[in-house]
Amino acid sequence: MGQVKFKMPDVGEGVVEAEIVEWHVKVGQKVQEDDTLVDVMTDKATVEIPAPVTGVISALNGEPGDVLAIGSVLLVIETEGGEATTDETPEPAPVSKPEPAPEPKTEPAKPAPVAAPVVTTSTNAKPLASPAVRRRALEQDIDLGQVVGTGPAGRISHQNLDDFIAAGWSLPSPSYKRQKRQGQTSHKVIGLRRKIGQNLSASKRNIPHFSYVEEIEMDALEDLRKHLNENRSNWEVKLNPLPFLALALIKVLPEFVQANAHFDGESLTQFFPVHLGIATATPNGLMVAVVRHAEAMDIWTLAAEIARVTKAARDGKATKDELTGSTITITSLGALGGIASTPVINAPETAIIGVNKLTEKLVLDRGNVVARKVMNLSSSFDHRIVDGFDAARMIREVKIALENPATLFMITNNLLEMLEHLVGCSFQWRQWFQPSEHWDHDHCEVCGVKFAIFEGDDILKAGYATNEPHPDNWICADCFKTHKEDFGWKVKP
Amino acid sequence: MKTLKTKILIIGGGPAGYPCAIRAGQLGMDVTLVDASGLGGTCLNRGCIPSKAYIHAASRLEEITAHANEPAMGISCAEPKLDMAGLKSWKDQLVGKLTGGVGMLLKAAGVNVLHGHAVFSDAKTCVVKLSDGGEQQITAEHVVLATGSTETELPFLPFSDRVLSSTSALELETLPKTLAVVGAGYIGLELGIAFAKLGSKVTFVEALDTILPQYDAEMTRPIKRWLKTHKVDLHLSAKAKDINKAGLVFTDKSGTEQTIAAEKILIAVGRKPNTTGFGLENMAIDMDGAFIAVDDQCRTYMRNVWAIGDVVGEPMLAHKGTAQGEMVAEIIAGKKRRYDPTAIAAVCFTEPEIVGVGLTPAQAKQAGEEVITGKFPLAALGKALAMQSGTDGGFVRVTARKSDHLILGIHAVGAHVAELSGEFALAIEMGARLEDIAGTIHVHPTLTEGFAESAMTALGHPIHIKA
User: Fold this and answer.
1) Closest residue by Cα to residue B127 from B5, B282, B119
2) Residues B395 and B462 sit within 8 Å (Cβ to Cβ)
3) N or C: which terminus of chain B carries fewer CB neighbours within 10 A?
4) What pLDDT score was predicted for residue A478?
5) What is residue B114's three-state secondary structure?
6) CATH for A116-173?
């Protein structure tokens, strides 16, 4: 008989350990090759591990929540020829030797109205009581579900009913009664929830947070946003304030690179690209979805990309790349939002920008009381890296940008610098949305690939494209790299 | 026509209607009971009681025949003779005595009884066509519908002199030599087995793949064994199709058409509620499928119109109707009542008898319970052996929740076990645990010891079998 010691497989690059989330098999169970054995979680991706061989499970190493190193034995499978470990059809046979039952005490039940409730998992939720007790309760408008039964198996006696009434629980009006809530639940915190906890405690423990709240007047931005949305077809992405805030950050961050950075306590890495983290509430808990190279996107692309990655995170379909590597994070509670918040930094980043609720408020404008749409930004910074003065300056710049939204769309020198490694052509980041076959789209002149196309929510291909010096001809990013010389473009020395 | 005004009008004098009337009368209310087909209803006239009389007589005949064939217990006798007409008249006498008794009880309770057929023009008004001629209009403050149920007829085998319902089967003046029974539910089995004991050659044709589908295979096995040893043929997964001169035509489980000799054919495929012919459509009452929809107090959707018994749904059992009838009378009298049984016992007077209360182990598991069971064979009881009833494979089986030993179900099969049903129901209604039953001293020598022993078996320490 063969025995396969199945080890925790290497489930991803750079992964050294994985957490058991759920076993799909039991000891003694027969499994076919490729049956799912177990779900394990690494970083934030959960992976199903299939059986490598057909056989019978003879041992499971670990409980859900346990973290095993890659390569350690996960389970043992007895292969063909192995003795049947257990019979898989337990007979509903008469149990001749039941466990010793909790014997009822022979002393009379104490008249203790506060006796601990006997928690039973009853087939029917009906409380256990004799017909006479049930009738008395009905006649006196007592919900037996509220009465604690001290008898065996939680049976409610007349005495229990007397005690209940004596304790003042019987109310003359049956229509509505305030009721005691009973019970609690407790379970081991494992999986994503544990990871969230670990990350957040580490952040709060290690990073001296500096939080700063500023009020933004949103009228101009809201007017623009409304205008832009009104001119969109139904199937196109609609803008919410989030991509505008993203643009504002992208605009100001080149001046405040310390806030677009990673700090591990020793070395500080400052980034030129903006990989924008979006804190996302998923059914499993908080995740940070990442829009890579947000700085290279126009507002529509940004809106679409934010929608795409957050949806992927919520659906549990986000890839590792879409969940890691952010350089600064935005957190928004959407329609909730509150007045102010103290966001926790997504370590090892150095800043997090929180969006509060957009409301209308009366403000004084040159002595006149006027209604304004205002929204607070509540931000936290790693005070080791970002000085309070710089943080305040940065938020002021963001405020100015948001309050003068036209400036969001002026490409600054900083951004141009990023693109200016090429000369001799003009650039456009092109994406096409393709809700149907009828919608216009372009192909790369060289390789013919449809580039930068949305199909449903999924980008098939995206890239730099250019139409110069060949108007109406577009070329995808990949071909551009290899063929740029052919088109007369040069790389700036 | 003068209109009779009454506080409570009850339609139907069966085991739901007449207890309702008696209880209402006891409570001092003005009650009128209208009955169309004999006080006592199906139960006393055409169901429970007459069939039990036949079953008893058939068993008596079988026992005497056994002694005639082969002396036993030192008793021998001549071959007994069966006079079907005599049996029927004995049964009629018995029924007469009981229905007469019901009439007396109703009278004593001050109930005004009208014999006739009521037709409602609205929810509170009806005209009764009296049996002895004439009509009577009645308006009532409260109307209680207890119209009962009737045998289901098969459209391709309509009832006739030859195709019998359970009612006409109990009126035969001569014993059929061959009897085909369509349906092996409890009614078909009870009557079919009785006729087999009386001397008919009986064959069952059942559409399902099991007899008595509400019970598990462990429980029906002794009955199947009895049928086999008494040469009663049982065709499962078989569909009755037609009759011809030779007998009953049916397709067996392989789909082959067969004909079995059948002088008479008994149709026992179930019962349907009586909801037509009395103006129900004029009463603005909601239905629940074929049944009248009621809440847990037997209120219909029409104010002060109540419905009880078979007409409100399963289980179609006399004792359920009786409980509902008493309850409704008390609610009308202003008492707080609710129909909330934990379990209702059901009994089949087959050979051997079956009784069940609460959940079977399989049902309990399906309900998410972890259970333990204790099964005690009646063969290990002295009383059962002394009554010659321990050898039919009978047993008492108790099903309890594993965690706190609360009894969830009690089932028994065996001769005379029907009489244990009261204790079984009491145990469940009182919320008994296995220890309560094991700790109650049961009388020796009685069959009830089997219940105590089954509880002890579940607890792991029976006395009369190996633990």
Assistant:
1) B119
2) no
3) N
4) 61
5) strand
6) 4.10.320.10
Whether domain A3-79 has CATH 2.40.50.100: yes
Name the band, by pLDDT with cuts 50, 70 and 90, for residue A127.
confident
ipTM of the complex: 0.73
Among A123, A126, A153, the residue with its CB nearest the CB of B404 is: A153
Q: Hey, is the C-beta of A187 within 8 angstroms of any chain B C-beta?
A: no
pLDDT of residue A54: 84
Closest Cβ opposite residue A123 in set B362, B368, B375: B368
Query: Are B404 and A102 within 8 A, CB to CB?
Result: yes
Asked if B406 lies within 8 A of A139 by C-beta distance, the reply is no
Residue B458 and residue A151: Cβ atoms within 8 Å? no
B365/A92 CB distance under 8 A: yes
Which chain A residues touch B363 with a CB distance below 8 Å? none
Is there a contact between B336 and A139 if contact means CB atoms under 8 Å apart? Answer: yes
- Mark A451-484 as b/e (b = at least 16 C-beta within 10 Å): bbbbeeeebeebbbbbbeeeeebbbbbbbbeebb
Question: Distance from B403 to chain A by nearest Cα, in Å?
Answer: 8
DSSP A89-123: -------SSPPPP-PPPSSPPP--TTPPP-----S
User: DSSP code of B457?
Assistant: H
Q: In which residue are the tokens 């549990």 written? A: A316
Interface probe, candidates A89, A91, A95, A133, chain B, greatest B C-beta count within 10 A: A95
> Bridge partners of A19?
A41, A67
- Residue-wise pLDDT tens digits, B373-382: 999 999 999 8
* pLDDT tens sequence across A192-244: 888 889 989 999 999 999 999 999 999 999 999 998 888 777 667 788 899 99
Which entry of A293, A383, A441, A483 is annotated as an active-site residue?
A: A383
Residues of A in contact with B465 (CB under 8 A): none
The question of whether B444 is a catalytic residue gets the answer yes
Cβ pair A139:B335 closer than 8 A: yes
Summarised one tens digit per residue, pLDDT across range B341-379 is: 999 999 999 999 999 999 999 999 999 999 999 999 999
3-state secondary structure of A392: helix
By three-state DSSP, how is residue A17 classified?
Answer: strand
Record the pTM: 0.56
- Give the residue ranges of chain B where pLDDT is below 70: none
The residue ranges of every structural domain in chain A are: 3-79, 116-173, 209-411, 421-491
- Of B336, B406, B459, nearest to A138 by CB-CB distance is B336
